[in-house]
Write a structure and sequence with these properties.
The structure is a single chain. This protein is α+β, with helices and mostly antiparallel strands. It folds into two domains: 122 residues, N-terminal domain of MutM-like DNA repair proteins, CATH 3.20.190.10; 128 residues, Helicase, Ruva Protein, domain 3 (Orthogonal Bundle), CATH 1.10.8.50. It has nine helices and ten strands. The strands form three sheets. The chain has a four-stranded antiparallel sheet with strand order 1-6-7-5, with helices on one face. A four-stranded antiparallel sheet has the order 2-3-4-8. A two-stranded antiparallel ribbon has the order 9-10. Helix 1 runs parallel beside helix 7 and helix 6 crosses helix 7. The longest helix has 20 residues. Bound molecules: zinc ion.
């Protein structure tokens, strides 16, 4: 599933093509969207952004097209005359004279008015979006402190605590923070919690800027030079289980929490419990 950084990058790609002074040509295929065509077809799109893993396309009349990709949904942006090879089902299509943006297979798609956004059952439950400028390490540290008894492994996927984090970010943030997945914010001292909050912000922003790469560039170059494949050079620990830690050479371990994998270094992330 795309996490916060992938969703924000998709929003940026859509905004570059669709945010203009003119309405763009649209076709809705998904039955839930079809009734909205008359309300949206002649209205320019003024912003495309994300909140956590939800994508929000805002129109000048105050309506917002909300989509959540879940496991199978996907947005594509191509030249208008280019064919897209996919077995997914088309939900909606937005055409400019030069480009085509299309939403495929998502099932969580709806149109919201400005007032409905605040009361939407999904959006209203989200915690601070880690990518937003307002999500400073101080704010994020406050979230850790208000969930002092919750384990790191569980809280890092809870969208009501931190919006936008998912499986790969969870492993990577906990590694940079030096936090064991079973530890809770209450097990750590204030300085350790602050370091954790800084890692949440830093690793997520890096993944956004570097298209899913969570290690600094120098580390990525070293991994590439050693002949690693992308799935392992791009991360510190995620998908590197049974390989040597880049810092201490211990073997990276894999555990499952709620069926979802988490990889960590037992030496760099010692437990306090
Ligand atoms: Zn290590």
């Amino acid at each position: 599933m795309p996490e916060g950084p992938e969703t924000r990058r998709a929003a940026d790609r859509l905004a570059r093509v669709l945010v203009t002074d003119e309405p763009v040509e649209m076709h809705f295929v998904y039955p839930k969207l079809v009734p909205w065509i008359d309300d949206l077809a002649h209205v320019p799109i003024c912003e495309v952004t994300s909140r956590g893993k939800a994508l929000l396309m805002r129109f000048e009349n105050g309506l917002t097209l909300y989509s959540h990709s879940q496991l199978y949904g996907r947005w594509t942006v191509n030249r208008r005359n280019q064919r897209v090879k996919t077995s997914r089902s088309l939900r909606a299509e937005f055409l400019t004279p030069t480009h085509a943006a299309r939403l495929w297979s998502a099932t969580e798609v709806r149109v919201l008015s400005a007032g409905e956004e605040a009361s939407d059952p999904f959006l209203s439950r989200l915690g601070p979006d880690v990518l937003d400028a307002s999500s400073t390490p101080k704010i994020l540290c406050g979230q850790l402190e208000s969930h002092a008894r919750k384990s790191a492994a569980h809280m890092m996927l809870d969208q009501s605590v931190f919006a936008g984090l998912g499986n790969y970010l969870r492993s990577e943030i906990l590694f940079e923070a030096g936090v064991h997945p079973d530890d809770r914010p209450g097990d750590l001292d204030a300085e350790e919690r602050h370091k954790w909050a800084q890692a949440i912000r830093r690793v997520t922003l890096r993944a956004y800027r570097e298209a899913g790469v969570t290690v600094p560039r120098a580390v990525a170059h070293k991994g590439k030079a050693a002949g690693e494949r992308r799935r392992t050079w791009r991360h510190w620990v995620f998908c590197r289980n049974e390989l040597a830690c880049r810092i201490c050479a211990s073997l990276i371990e894999r555990r499952r929490y709620g069926g979802r994998r988490l990889d960590f270094c037992p030496t760099c992330q010692p437990s306090h419990r």
